Amino acid sequence: MAILSFALTTEELLDGTKTVTRRDWKDSHMSNWQEWYEAGRRVHSAYDQLPIAGGEKIAEIRLTERPYWERLKDMPESDLEAEGGMVDTRAEFYELIGLPPSAEVAVVRFEVV
Known about the structure:
Blueprint: E1 3-5, H1 10-14, E2 20-23, H2 27-38, E3 43-47, E4 57-63, E5 68-71, H3 79-82, H4 90-97, E6 104-112
Parallel strand pairs: 1-3
Antiparallel strand pairs: 2-6, 3-4, 4-6, 5-6
Protein name: ASCH domain-containing protein
């Protein structure tokens, strides 16, 4: 079981608002997640922050589709709410995560188990 940290969106994860996350991953890390999905390993641990920072497991999530790459500028408007609803526009989202619209990120869609 792998780990995803939801430090900024713990509450939104637990109340079911957050059902997708975008991550600035290296190709090798993304490959691991894609391989796990294809092998049927779809349930993973959700933490409130990284374990090395004292984080605790808060839930388990099940991937609802194979993780994929997407440029931030191609993110559907509807995903602003699915990302936790912390911002109202894509521009605010880019600023929140500190990446430009041209950045390609890993998209992980899930449900809380």
